[in-house]
């Protein structure tokens, strides 16, 4: 067996392109390796994915997975458990027989990219399988490029991003599911025989219900800190399908990619279809290890400005809903300034000339300021923000229109709608999706942002919303033959518009929102700074929602706002202390009308903002350790962030149930330096008496092995006691 490691490959091909004369390909990150067998003229085989292996061990490496574990199983010639790629050739032949042709090694954006080129043994069709390595984060991104060199069109019917065979054992799947206002619930299940499919068919948004990210615990029941665990995230904003097939072979076959349902894709001669990336990571530190890898990779590569602190903001939505007016906006700006905030965001309701946006029934598409509500326009608001020394942000929903809008009246051909059908409308009974497969619509969407930013360059922040599914499958732009491209081309078109926006406005902060958490995905996040985690702002339910979201997304991206009591979604009344403590565990903001806040609420919020500013870098850039899951129903939930130097940490503790004489678990911390000594200080304190451990020093070892006993209730005068209890503790090494 001939072996050449990648160092040789880099030397051979540092000039760019070449054929690697190697049968074994080993890709490394700092702690992991992935190995393939790439014999020229044969099928590409997967050999290994896991802990880093030495080059000297390659010689005797036997496949951890079954010998039939092809990297990119193709349809037609032999029976494979599940296919990753299938097509109908220009002559009607439905078979593929992809074989290794060449291996390339390149450096792209400072990262190693290894590409294995497969060619069909008869037809001039090729598939390039790419792996980009992120050594420090222990991540790989893999995607494929399928090229048609036939003389006529081919039709792709399967075009997965990747296939990963996972050796059977006691493998468990962890994934997220939910609904609007109840996003990202965690579910763990053992993989059993048959097929598990996780999918989305919404068209525009893809994370309200299921999520395109999963984890596989290879050593039995998932554990937060231990066990070999693989994490995978499909980086795509559209419909996806993740399949895990468990048959009688040695492996679970995990195949992930765009959901091909209703979406066969025609490729003209010379055209290449590029699939979205599947991000893969592996850790021996259980679910938590995988999450931390995702967070680090996201902050560095998959999120806009992942290294910049986020501002504390007030968003107008739950405070005033559509009731936007100059006086109200000015008063909100003053109030958030008084409480220590740094940014005010004017939500829905500010636009529409012919049709004023007073509710969700009209005006989307008419991104012109309504002077009846804002006589001095956006300029006036920017001036007001400046006076308060805060920044200003604004809401848009640029991919959509209302039938009742000047845009729709001028361009009915821009909406998605099939011929011969009465359309089905979205939100408010009149919303429709703009056809982003059409370059004119891509231009329009770009222009919405460009016009705002050209007219008002001081806008600091945009909240980009998406409140409707892709209904009425039918493009007025695509040809009859290519109608099945719509679900894919919508998202390719959206990316094109976003590419232009980001090229011109690299510094702008943009929040990704979609009726709450409908668009938490790594396909779109590279263009955005953060996302609105859920329209549900109830602090108790947010603990669960944010817990699930944190499996794959870093806290810096998770917009988390203090809202009114009773809560507008659950009608639960939660004291301000608990509400602030939950919001402080993500990117802190406020989502209520300050005018309606009690004095106590204002004071507590002001304090929370000040305290948050003192821990902001730890929360936004630190490593997350989930300590006690709310899903385990132990009566408490707890999590913490630790900075890179392990000098500072913040611990959050929330009581999730109030039963008398219930013994709650002690909190054992994680991720600290055992040798260091940490002083414990309580933040956002309301108690009349300090905690017994306030200001005391403990070793990292003690805090991690014995932990601290957090009192069940707050120490408060009788008339202030409630059944709610929460704590934020800061640990400082000294
Ligand atoms: C969506 C968002 C909300 C708000 C409204 C405005 O529902 O999730 O935060 O912006 O739209 O209409």
Describe the fold and architecture.
- This protein has twelve helices and 36 strands.
- By secondary structure, the chain is of the alpha+beta class.
- Strands 5, 6, 7, 8, 11, 12, 14, 15, 19 and 20 form a ten-stranded antiparallel beta sheet that branches. Strands 21-22-23-26-27-28-29-30 form an eight-stranded parallel barrel, surrounded by five helices.
- Helix 4 runs parallel beside helix 5, helix 9 runs parallel beside helix 10 and helix 10 (576-583) runs parallel beside helix 11 (599-621).
- The chain starts with 5 loop residues before the first helix and ends with a strand.
- Mean pLDDT is 95; it is low at 1-21.
- The structure holds alpha-D-galactopyranose.
- The site of alpha-D-galactopyranose has 11 residues, from loops.
Q: Topology of this structure?
A:
Layout: H1 6-13, E1 24-28, E2 32-37, E3 45-51, E4 85-88, E5 98-108, E6 111-120, E7 125-134, E8 139-148, E9 154-159, E10 162-167, E11 172-179, E12 182-190, E13 194-199, E14 210-217, E15 229-234, E16 240-246, E17 251-258, E18 265-267, E19 272-274, E20 278-283, H2 286-302, E21 313-315, H3 317-320, H4 326-338, E22 343-346, H5 377-388, E23 391-396, E24 400-402, H6 406-410, E25 431-433, H7 439-455, E26 459-464, H8 486-504, E27 509-512, E28 530-532, H9 539-549, E29 558-563, H10 576-583, E30 587-591, H11 599-621, E31 623-628, E32 636-642, E33 648-655, E34 677-683, E35 697-699, H12 700-705, E36 726-733
Parallel strand pairs: 21-22, 21-30, 22-23, 23-26, 26-27, 27-28, 28-29, 29-30
Antiparallel strand pairs: 1-2, 2-3, 4-9, 5-6, 6-7, 7-8, 8-19, 8-20, 9-18, 10-17, 11-12, 11-14, 13-16, 14-15, 15-20, 16-17, 24-25, 31-32, 32-33, 33-36, 34-35, 34-36
The structure holds alpha-D-galactopyranose.
């Amino acid at each position: 067996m001939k072996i050449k490691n990648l160092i040789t490959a880099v030397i051979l091909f540092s000039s760019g392109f070449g054929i690697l004369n190697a049968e074994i390909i080993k890709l490394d990150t700092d702690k992991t390796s992935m190995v393939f067998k790439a014999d020229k003229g044969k099928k590409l085989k997967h050999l290994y994915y896991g802990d880093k292996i030495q080059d000297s061990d390659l010689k005797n490496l036997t496949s951890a997975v079954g010998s039939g574990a092809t990297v990119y199983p193709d349809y037609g010639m032999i029976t494979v458990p599940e296919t990753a790629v299938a097509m109908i050739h220009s002559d009607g032949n439905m078979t593929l027989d992809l074989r290794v042709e060449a291996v390339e090694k390149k450096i792209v954006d400072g990262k190693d990219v290894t590409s294995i080129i497969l060619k069909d043994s008869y037809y001039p069709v090729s598939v390039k399988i790419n792996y980009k390595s992120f050594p420090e984060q222990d991540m790989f991104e893999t995607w494929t490029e399928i090229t048609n060199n036939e003389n006529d069109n081919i039709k792709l019917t399967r075009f997965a991003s990747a296939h990963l065979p996972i050796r059977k054992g006691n493998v468990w799947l962890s994934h997220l599911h939910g609904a609007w206002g109840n996003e990202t619930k965690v579910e763990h299940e053992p993989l059993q025989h048959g097929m598990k499919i996780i999918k989305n068919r919404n068209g525009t948004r893809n994370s309200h219900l299921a999520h395109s990210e999963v984890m596989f615990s290879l050593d039995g029941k998932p554990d937060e800190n231990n066990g070999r665990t693989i994490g995978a995230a499909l980086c795509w904003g559209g419909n996806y399908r993740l399949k895990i097939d468990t048959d009688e072979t040695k492996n679970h076959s995990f195949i992930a990619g765009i959901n091909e349902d209703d979406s066969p894709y025609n490729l003209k001669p010379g055209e290449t279809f590029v699939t979205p990336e599947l991000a893969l990571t592996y850790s021996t530190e259980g679910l938590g290890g995988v999450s931390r890898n995702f967070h680090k990779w996201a902050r560095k590569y998959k999120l806009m400005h992942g290294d910049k602190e986020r501002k504390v903001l007030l968003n107008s939505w739950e405070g005033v809903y559509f009731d936007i007016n100059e006086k109200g906006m000015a008063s909100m700006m003053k109030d958030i300034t008084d409480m220590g905030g740094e940014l005010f965001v004017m939500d829905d309701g500010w636009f529409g000339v012919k049709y004023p946006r007073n509710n969700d029934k009209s005006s989307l598409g008419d991104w012109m300021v309504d002077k009846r509500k804002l006589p001095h326009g956006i300029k006036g608001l920017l001036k007001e923000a400046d006076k308060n020394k805060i920044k200003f942000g604004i809401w848009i929903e640029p991919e959509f229109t209302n039938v009742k809008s000047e845009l729709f009246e001028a361009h009915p051909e821009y909406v998605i709608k099939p011929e011969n059908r009465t359309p089905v409308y979205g939100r408010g009974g009149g919303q429709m999706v703009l056809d982003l497969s059409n370059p004119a619509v891509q231009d329009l969407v770009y222009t919405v942002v460009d016009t705002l930013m050209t007219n008002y360059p001081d806008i600091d922040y945009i909240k980009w919303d998406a409140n409707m599914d892709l209904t009425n499958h039918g493009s007025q732009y695509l040809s009859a033959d290519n109608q099945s491209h719509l679900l894919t081309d919508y998202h390719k078109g959206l990316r094109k518009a976003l590419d232009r926006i980001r090229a011109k406005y690299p510094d702008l902060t943009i929040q990704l929102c979609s009726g709450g958490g409908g668009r938490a995905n790594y396909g779109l996040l590279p263009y955005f700074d953060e996302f609105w985690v859920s329209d549900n702002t109830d602090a108790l339910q947010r603990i669960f929602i944010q817990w699930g979201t944190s499996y794959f997304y870093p806290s810096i991206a998770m917009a988390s706002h203090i809202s009114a009591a009773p809560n507008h979604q659950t009608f639960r009344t939660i004291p301000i202390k608990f509400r602030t403590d939950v919001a402080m565990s993500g990117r802190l903001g406020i989502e209520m009308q300050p005018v309606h806040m009690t004095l106590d609420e204002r004071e507590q919020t002001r304090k929370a903002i000040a305290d948050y500013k003192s821990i902001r870098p730890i929360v936004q850039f630190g490593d997350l350790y989930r300590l006690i899951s709310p899903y385990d129903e132990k009566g408490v939930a707890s999590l913490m962030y630790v900075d890179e130097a392990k000098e500072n940490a913040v611990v959050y503790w929330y009581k999730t149930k109030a039963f008398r004489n219930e013994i709650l678990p002690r909190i054992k911390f994680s991720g600290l330096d055992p040798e260091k000594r940490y002083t414990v200080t309580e933040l956002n304190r309301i108690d009349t008496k300090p905690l017994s451990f306030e200001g005391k020093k403990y070793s990292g070892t003690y805090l991690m092995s014995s932990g601290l006993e957090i009192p069940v209730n707050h120490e408060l005068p009788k008339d202030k006691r409630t059944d709610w209890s929460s704590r934020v503790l800061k640990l400082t090494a000294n």
